[in-house]
Structures are given as structure tokens and as C-alpha cells.
Amino acid sequence: MGPDARARPPGGPLRVAGAAVGLVAALAAGALAAGWAAGPGGAPWTARVPAGAAPDAGGASSAGPAGITESAGRRDGGLSARGVLGHGSNAHWSQNDIVLRSAGPLTSLTVELRVVPAGEVWHTGQWCSLPADDFRVAAREEGGALVYRWELREGREVPPGEYRFAGQYHHSEGRRDMGRDGYTISGKGPLGPVAARGGFRREGRENVGGSVTE
Q1: What pTM, to 2 d.p., does this model score?
Q2: Where is this region: Disordered (predicted)?
Q3: Which of 29, 126, 134, 209 is 20 to 30 A from residue 83's alpha carbon, by CA?
Q4: Closest Cα to residue 213, out of 74, 72, 83?
Q5: Is the previous residue joined to 65 through a cis bond, with omega within 30 degrees of 0?
Q6: What is the pLDDT of residue 191?
Q7: Which residues contact residue 40 at a Cβ distance below 8 angstroms, ignoring those fewer than 6 apart?
Q8: CB neighbours of 154 closer than 8 A, spacing ≥ 6?
């Protein structure tokens, strides 16, 4: 019997007249029939695709697949990073985000995102949360991957904080496997050269991420 209170039996025995018993039985039978008609099942999972275009072309709004976890990795040298599937990703379009955190200023920084394989994805845009004029950016196919690159211009500096670098792309319909995607980060901070590298995971698996001091 369903969770509807109307379908529950009375809390204890009652002494009622025959007519009242008949009325209660009729009501209970009706509620039971309604419970069976509603059924406990639900519609099968389907990918939600927004009516609009991807964010770079007008702003997608659907939520990304559930169950994605993030791993902050180690914090050696004051630099750490993690890879996540960006908000707005859907069955036709996705965004890979690299979230970088630096405990100190960086006077040089190169961030590279690799989406694999290149033949199954199509570049639609890239951005970062730092001033765009501070970076030279590029996107190209290289070694079987779609490679996004951000390189800090000479004379510019990245202040301490957390920043996001995102590569956007179309892909074949469905839930795309991110298991071969990855990123590398290199730069120079107060303690000398620093670097980080990692990958992307979904459905409860940790992202492969970390940082090292050279």
C-alpha cells in the first residue's frame, strides 16, 4: 500500500455499526485501488538538453550529470589543482574546468588542458577567471587530443587565490567518458618553480590531481 495516509488502516480496533463498517471498507478499497493505479515506478533516466545553445553561443542552463566528486590533491609548494566537469555540461556539449589554487603570487604560469580523442570533440570556446588580456590563449589538435593552452604574458602576475580555466566543446550525444582527459600546470612562485597535473573523473570516482615542487 502506498505512503498516502488515506490508504493506511485505522490505528486500533473500533466498535462501529454495520453500516459504518461497510463505509470504511469501501473507502479503504478505493484508496488501495488508487495506490495501485499510481504505481511506485518512475520514468527512465534521460539526458536533459537545454533548448538554447551552448554557453559560448547563447547560454546553456542544464545541470551537469550528478555524482561528480572533486579531489583537492596535495598542496606541495603552495600550488594545488583539481579537474571537474563544468556547470552547464549536457548530452551534446561539455566544459572541462581546471580549478587552480595558489598560496602565493605567480610570475609565470602555463595551463594546458587535453581533451581526448580529438576526433570526437569540437572546440567551441575557452575562458579563465583571470583577466583575459594577461594570457596568450590557443586551442588546437595535437597528438590525438584537443589541446587548450593559457600562457601568462611577461610582466603580468597572478595574485594568490583560486582561479578557473575552462575548455568548451561539442561531442556526440550521450554521457562522455572523461577518463583520458588531463591537465598540466607549470609556473614560478616565491619558492621557485611549481607544477601540477591531473585528470577528470565522474560518478563517485576521485579526480586524479596533485602538485609538485621542482
Answers
A1: 0.62
A2: 49-83, 194-214
A3: 134
A4: 74
A5: no
A6: 82
A7: 2
A8: none
Three cell numbers at 79?
A: 600550488
CA–CA distance, 150 with 165 (Å, rounded to integer): 8
- Give pLDDT, residue 101: 97
Query: How far is Cα 63 from Cα 88, in angstroms, rounded to an integer?
Result: 5
Residue ranges per structural domain of the chain:
55-213
Task: Give the separation between CA 150 and CA 145, rounded to whole angstroms.
Answer: 16
pLDDT of 213:
35
Q: Which residues of the chain have pLDDT under 70?
A: 1-77, 201-214
Instruction: Say how far apart CA 167 and CA 127 lie, in whole Å.
Output: 7
In the chain, what is the straight-line distance between the N-terminal and C-terminal CA atoms, in Å? 65
